[in-house]
Design a protein that fits this description.
Has phosphodiesterase (PDE) activity against cyclic-di-AMP (c-di-AMP). This is Cyclic-di-AMP phosphodiesterase. InterPro entries: DDH_dom, DHH_sf, DHHA1_dom, GdpP/PdeA, Oligoribo/pAp-PDE_c-di-AMP_PDE. It catalyses: 3',3'-c-di-AMP + H2O = 5'-O-phosphonoadenylyl-(3'->5')-adenosine + H(+). Belongs to the GdpP/PdeA phosphodiesterase family. By secondary structure, the chain is an alpha/beta fold. It has 24 helices and 23 strands. A hairpin with a 4-residue loop joins β10 and β11. α2 runs antiparallel to α3, α17 packs across α19 and α21 packs across α22.
Amino acid sequence: MKHQVSWGGKLKSYLEWPIFVVVLLLIMDVAIFVCDRHAGLIALLFTCIYLIVMIALFFVYRPSVMKELVSFAAEYGQVQRQMLEDFSIPYGLLDVDGKTIWMNHEMQALFRKNNRYHQVITTLIPDLCLSQLPHEKETTELETAIAGHNFRVQVKRVHIDEWQSSSDLLVVPDDQCYLYTVYMFDDTELMKYMRLNEEQKLVTGLIYIDNYDEVLDSMDDVRKSLLLALIDRKIDKYISNHQGITKKLEKDKYFIIIQQKYLTSMQDSRFSLLEDIKTVNVGNEMNITLSIGIGTDGKNYQENYSFAHAAIDLALGRGGDQAVVKDAVSITYYGGKSQQVEKSTRVRARVKAQALLEIINAKDDVVIMGHKITDIDTFGAAIGIFRAARSVGKKAYILIDSNSHSITPYLNMFLENRDYESDMFINHHMADELVDDNTVLVVVDTNRPSNTEYPELLERAKNIVVLDHHRQSSEIIRNATLSYTEPYASSACEMVAEILQYFNEGVKLTRIEADCVYAGIIVDTNNFLAKTGIRTFEAAAYLRRCGADVTRVRKIMRNDVSAYKARAEAIQNAELYHECYAIGILPSKNLDMPTIIGAQASNELLNIIGVKASFVLTDYNNIIYISARSIDEVNVQIIMERLGGGGHMNIAGAQLAGITAEEAKTKLKETLDAMIAEGAI
């Protein structure tokens, strides 16, 4: 039996309302008939006429109305389909498996496919992985390049469960009652103008001549003006080639402005001006070196200038001959390959000594802290500051790491000596009780907060003094009242020895105190072989006058036989990577101070012909310690910085946690490979 098409929904209710009117009219007729028979008959007549007309209209026009409704629905669906077909952006539908079901004309033209193409969408948009298809009400967005255009692809999930429940054409599982819609917005023009806007941003920078006075002092007066003219010309030409502006601020300082796009080319060439300026020679005995600080990506020009100042300070603090680029979130270093020239003047040391004296005199107590796993350089520097504080009648304390076995012989000299108070050395708990507003916290041999013996103490202290010889990194102690960082110095002990000579008209160390400071210089200079200058020997001479004994220090520094064998094994099994990088692993089992032995082994590896840099890895307390050394050809500091460490150009180190020695060795090799490919080393 064939079923006729019938009305339904709200349309059915709308068309049935005349029936209710007829019922109401009949009730009205009965009421009128009761009142007046003739009037009732007349009303009944008109009601019958209304009923006949209504029935005639309903049955006569019903097929026409139905036809027009169906026609409208069909035309409306066709209009919708045509609108999607002619949609000005590429648009398509995917099934639950990510396969294309339908594409409009724009999408077909873009991919040169038709609607018979039913493959996974990744064959058309490789950047859109199936795992990226959205869940529920999520929207997936990604950037991709197709046919030379940049598209922003937007994928949404569309549920069809209502349509599925009202249709018997398809039977779809409940968990698959959805499709994916793909919209592709052509952002090529937008990206172009955004890129142009980014490239045309102004970048500010500062250029300082590192060794201006030293270079000019080595020349006769006739050639000085020629040299300065050549330097100006080199800098002006370099900046002009990058469409920039140069303004000379002082005799050795320049201000520059360039566009962002030219900064990229400068970075790609690793600031070739750094090496080019060294070729200027008109009889000067030493090469000219520059420091460059660049500020970019700030909110305004003033912030860029502030970034440039911070960058040039970092470049100078790291020894000069390098460029530092600072933006709102990161700092990047370039260069730093030259040996730093030692400054012969002691003016800065004298000024810092007087400032330190004033700070200590204004407070009650002094707490001295170094870096984690205290070494002899840290210990010697702390002893020197201890004596300085005691010389002006202030109570001083030294915070010592309990794991610092390498300084045990030196520590015992004080613990067994009745001339020193029993509370001279303190632990973390005691430091918490001591540090207050009337305490000076002196940090020696490190300028990185995370590397200090007790980082939390820096947050509590109101008066902080930093004395360090390591090159600065982006992580520095920022709230210091006094910061004295000299990368040219061989050791923290050398710096302290200089300060003591100007502190309160000179400080006289005791013999054991002088031994400790002297030992710090010996260890960090590898017996005066590395990073040693005139001021290093002057500091050593001062310590000798205070009673330091070379023989006594040498006896204390001797190793036991197990340490000696471990060092020999690390050297014997060292690998020569790229024919010039010696990499060894120290067997640290049953060693009291393996990190010190690792440093000694690293120094020994430099005695091999052809070795430019040496690296010895030591596993200690589940942390891999890397001791890096070089003579003059490789800057090991920038290598260690890639691994989260730091140090000097010739002496540096890093610590890696959560990996084995072999894994650390592989990571070191990968870092060396990357830096060689970049031209960084």
